[in-house]
Amino acid sequence: MNLTPDQRRNKIIDILEQHDFVDFTYFGQYFNVSEMTIRRDIEYLERAGEVVRVYGGAKLRNDRGYEASIQERLKTNHKEKQVIAKQAAAQIFDGDVIALDGSTTALEVSKLIKDRKNLTVITNNISIAIELSTAVDIQTVLLGGFVRGSSLSLVGAMVEQSLGAFYIDKTFISSRALHYTEGLTDITVEEGEAKKAMVEKSNRVYVLVDHTKLDNLSFFHVIDREKIDVIITDQLVPFTQEQQQLIENFRTDGIEVMISSDD
Coil, strand, or helix at residue 172? Predict the structure, then answer.
């Protein structure tokens, strides 16, 4: 069975959803990989909050995989999203071709750019398309796909196919977590794949994450840190020592980190 690490981890979750406990030996035989590889997968999923390691194997966390509705996410860390969106909007100029993902932070950005001239906005999110529909000097492109009711985003293979004809100057994406070694990770495979597709078509990638997402992991790998040009975050509360080190590491790698404040 020749699977990528992401595909294998997805399958591990599928198997654990059908069984209370599965041991490492079974996984190794099932995927035809070493037990060490399985242990690394389980450690990754444990850090992402999906599974719990128990002696000789793993089981699902009882509180794993909760995805809030768009209404709930709009209320969560709303002030942080607003200050990050203000900084992001300042990077968008007349004549740009940009992409906005299905995140609520990107929705906040869309509210601040309606005065731009000759702007093209490509998005897979219905709420963003509606928000921009009255902006007379903005051409909005809504990508095709299947509708996810929890986010009002369009996902699936049609998203990538729809992007085929476009060249994007700047892509703005958010996600559940940002980590130095694992990069950007998210809770849903479908949303993550849509973000990946936008990044692959973009000249410059902006990652919008509030301070609570720094130095954290989620379930699905979206992009490596090498794909990121700019990180925009907030400091409405002081950074932890680990978060400050993370920022310094990104900057050492040549990634620009913009820290927004409530001013």
Answer: strand
Q: What are the pLDDT digits (tens) for 60-75? A: 887 655 444 555 555 5
CA distance 106 to 21: 39
pLDDT-derived band at 18, boundaries 50, 70, 90: confident
Amino acid (1-letter code) at residue 206: Y
| Sequence-distant (≥ 6) Cβ neighbours of residue 159 within 8 angstroms | 124, 143, 144, 145, 193, 194, 197
Instruction: Write the pLDDT tens digit of every residue in 148-197.
Output: 877 889 999 999 999 988 999 999 999 999 999 999 999 888 899 999 99
CA distance 66 to 46: 15
What contacts 24+ positions apart, CB below 8 Å, involve 109-113? 109/85, 109/172, 109/208, 111/85, 112/85, 112/86, 113/89, 113/138
Task: List the structure tokens of 15.
Answer: 């198997």
The boundaries of every CATH 3.40.50.1360 domain in the chain are: 70-260
Task: Say how many C-beta atoms besides its own lie within 10 A of residue 254's C-beta.
Answer: 9
Joined tokens for residue 258: 């913009």
Q: CA-based angle 90:92:95, to the nearest 5?
A: 145
pTM confidence score:
0.77
**What is the per-residue pLDDT across 111-146, written as a single tens digit (0 to 9) for each?**
999 999 999 999 999 999 999 999 999 999 999 999
Domain 70-260 in CATH 3.40.50.1360? The answer is yes
- Cα–Cα distance measured from residue 147 to residue 58, given in angstroms and rounded to the nearest whole number: 33
Q: CA-CA distance, 244 to 40, in Å (whole number)?
A: 26
- The CATH architecture assigned to 5-60 reads Orthogonal Bundle (1.10)
User: Closest Cα partner for 131 from 102, 163, 160, 92?
Assistant: 102
